[in-house]
Amino acid sequence: MSLTAELTQKSEDLQHILSDMGRVIVAFSAGVDSTVVAQAAVLACGDHALAVTAQSPSLATGEKEEAIQLASIIGIEHRLISTEEFSTDAYRANAPDRCFFCKTELYQLISHSIASEEWNSATLVNGANLDDRGDHRPGMQAATDFHVRSPLIEAGITKADVRNLAQHWELPIWNKPAHPCLSSRIAYGVEVTEERVQRIDQGEQFLRQQFQIEELRVRLEPNELARIEVPLTQIQKLTSPTALEQITQKFLQLGFKNVTLDLQGFRSGSMNQFLSLNDLQIASQKIEL
Fold first, then answer.
1. What is the pLDDT of residue 279?
2. Contacts of 56 (CB under 8 A, 6+ apart)
C-alpha cells in the first residue's frame, strides 16, 4: 500500500521524533498502535529500540505469543515483565480510574528495572494516537506522571493513519480489532479478580472458536451476569435454539449466573456510557507533548 503525501510526512515526523530521543523503550501490547510505534522506533533508532510487554492475568489468551511473534517480525529487542496490579486494592476496586493504577504499575516497573539499568538514558513511549485524546483514558495521567511520551500524538497520527502505516509496512496486524485488557470487560464497581478475567477470557475464546466471530466482548455485569456483544451482522449466528443452548450451557459451566445477548451489538468501550461527566477525562484534559 502506498502512502499519501500527508501520511508520508507524518511517518517522517514520527521517525524524526523517535530518532531525536536517541534510545527508546516502547510499551508494547501487540495492538496495532504500539506495533506501529515499535516499527517506527526500529526504523529510527535501530538497535537502540526496545519493546516491553506486560504479562498479567488481564492479558487475553494468545496476546503474549502474538507480541513475541510481532517483535521478531519487526526485529526489535523484546522483553516480557510480570506486573502485579491485581495486588493493588485500588485496581481491584474497579473505579472508573482503574486504568490509571494498571499503567502506573507498568510504567513504574519499567522505570525502576529496565530503564534504571542498561536503558537508563532511554525515553519511554506508548501507543496512544490522536483519536485517544477524546476517549476515557485515565492511563494517560499515569503516562504524564512518569514522563511517558506519545509519539503518535506528537506526529498528529490518527487511528486510521496507524492502520494505513501498518498496512504499508506489511505488519500482519494492520486490521486487527482492538483488544483492550480483560479487566475492561467488568462493570465499574464490580471487583476485578483473576478468576473473573479468566472466566471472561474463556467465554470469549469459546465464542470465537465455536462461531467464528473475531470482534466481540463478554461483559461482566453485577450479580455475575454475562452480557455478550457481537456485531449486529453476526447476531444471527448466536440465536438459533442450538446456539443458545450451547452458549448457555458453556457460560453457566464457567461460573456465570445468567447470560444475555446485547441487541445493540458490539460497541467498543460500552461500559463508559454509564460514567458521569465528572468521571470522564475527555479531550479537554491537557496532555503535555
1. 45
2. 82, 83, 85, 86, 102, 181
